[in-house]
Amino acid sequence: MVSALSGFVLIGAIVLAGWALRRWGGLPENAEAVLARVVWLVLTPCLLFTGVAASDLTALFSEPLLVSVGAALICFGLHALIVRGVRPGLPGLSGSSGLPGSPGSSGSAFRRVGSGELVLGALGAGYVNANYIGIPVATYVLGDATLVIPIIVLQLLIITPIALTLLELATTGHASARAAVSVPLRNPLVVATLLGGIVALTGLRLPSILLNPLTTIGQAAVPMVLIAFGMSLSGRRVLAPGPERAGTVTAVLLKTAAMPLIAFLLAAAWRLTPPQTYAVTVLAGLPTAQNIYLYAQRFRTGQILVRDTIFLTTVSCVPVLLSVTLLFHLW
């Protein structure tokens, strides 16, 4: 319990440093965007490549990962069912985006935009931030960063290509096989994970002159992304009135409350060991991944919904994970 609390304190201190830096550091307006870009293009790919290359990919077929996948799929489906059932006729969920000049003026495009937001809302309810928050939590709370690697690999190499293909279909009305392959391969995290997987599967031993720089650069990813997140908390306004609010609230509740509970119940049904049950429950309590906002920007749909979901689930994850940790230690 003490080590877990120490991990949360460490994460909180780094996030607080980022918030203070943004508020009082006199940084230029684009400082956060530049830092996030460096993390996205350089630091995190190095971390993922070295982590996946040294991992045992047989963990992709492990029972804990199946539990994590089951919890995510249930939350994906629940969000789609709830949003379609509660708000079937509102723009932004099953209608137009509400943006002037958007394709929502015609019937078919009207439905396509709604479908894109439905895909993004479902992802917001179950696609965890395994990279930027998951690695620090696995490192400092669970004591083993490799516990989150199977989730990263699964999300980047399987869920992401499927999601991007669905978004392509939803926003354009068609999705080619070429787009289904090329869009994920333009994501540096996907490429780094794929290359690391090739190294792990082939047993290739990289020379230290190549591996050491990659490892050193990757070690900067965790603190830098926490600082960038802290910077993003300054001056944010969320849940403004609009058609996205219902989808946002649904995604936040599913992600922060339902998904950890579902993961725990599935782990109990699967008879996982207590440490495995604790790990999958904690990892299910991770916030929504920031990658999804990049997808919303790329396809120009659901940006407000995704932005607010990421913010609220990230802020909520600390009390959620603290509660999970406390309950497990009392149990």
Automatic annotation (TrEMBL):
It comes from Actinoplanes awajinensis subsp. mycoplanecinus. One of its GO terms (cellular component) is membrane. It is found in: Membrane. This is Transporter. PANTHER family: AUXIN EFFLUX CARRIER FAMILY PROTEIN, TRANSPORTER AUXIN EFFLUX CARRIER EC FAMILY. The keyword Iron-sulfur does not apply. Signal peptide: none annotated. The chain crosses the membrane at residues 6-22, 34-53, 65-83, 118-141, 147-167, 188-210, 216-234, 246-270, 276-296, 308-330. Pfam families: Mem_trans.
